[in-house]
């Protein structure tokens, strides 16, 4: 006999708390599922700007959140990619554009064709075939096309909380909710005033300590490896940039990177670094030199992925499940991975949550592939003679990432593993942008005569120009949303 989950309690803070509550309510309110939120206080004032991938726009549509709300309440700007500058040691910079690069010709993918043409004398870079990257450089966007966002973190959190309230989601605030556990399950959450909350399923959307999941797993095991050597980040604000850029800029410094994240009213500035290579004082001086501002905030971004984010009747999401470097706009993406899997795997039997095993396997694998994408930036850096970067280049990487780099370097072919979060075009942009020039290419790419290949590439470039010409300025897109 079915014993369905009838109640969920979500404890934590920030976007993962509210996104999970809204998503669960939207998906299951019609079945009678009751969602209760317990919000814990935020750490304090924040300069944080959240960069988000295009997947968030699709997720927002499912949740009933539109671009106009983001612009009005989260100071949002659109994003067509991220620019990486100085990672090879010079003045080089490339944009990882959100969208397709080039076109397949028949059954032949674009990348090996471009590599073949380059070996034959083509002097047009890979990025030139990406309309999103071209539009980003020129400040032009197709609002109907794939785009990410830059969001004021505090404003975005308030927007989500209001959206949840309009939906009728019950929300409480408490400074220190405490989980009571027995026999490998959370039995209730006790609030500071003595009130208790009981539910069939508990979701820990808190910090890395895991107020709920920690009661079941006080000494968690973490997945081996790391995506980034950076473990600390300072944030500050600078004046807005005009015109408003359509990309964030991630510029390498001697012990990490400095990021510029543009909003309409200000620019978020983040300085990520390794605490064993750069002191907090030195990092603060560097950030103040960048912004001219004394007001800065510190947070820890140590790389970690829990091996078991779902234990018993408790599921960890957000920082309670995984954390790390925010480059590649993955901060919200990590939350989405866990929430979407929870929606798909909401238990059919509250007394026997067999879904935990496949959730743990799939979510951890997805997060590991995200980690690989980030690790590639550091592993492929070309900054010689700097301790941080030399160590990052020599650090071991996962077998999956090593295979991906080796295969691409040999024949311009991408090894796609299960649970990938970034598509082939994103990988090509990163690998080529960081200087990998494949030694050869898939022999099938030789089927096309030289003249036909050059003609098709020229047509693709013309197509990119036509797409960019049809785009509109960023500010016009914001006003039209």
Automatic annotation (TrEMBL):
InterPro entries (UniProt xref): FAD/NAD-bd_sf (IPR036188), Flavin-dep_Halogenase_NPB (IPR050816), Flavin_halogenase (IPR006905)
Superkingdom as given in the UniProt entry: Bacteria
Descriptive protein name: Tryptophan 7-halogenase
One Pfam family of this chain: Trp_halogenase
Any coiled-coil regions, as ranges: none
SUPFAM superfamilies: FAD/NAD(P)-binding domain (SSF51905)
GO molecular function, one term: monooxygenase activity
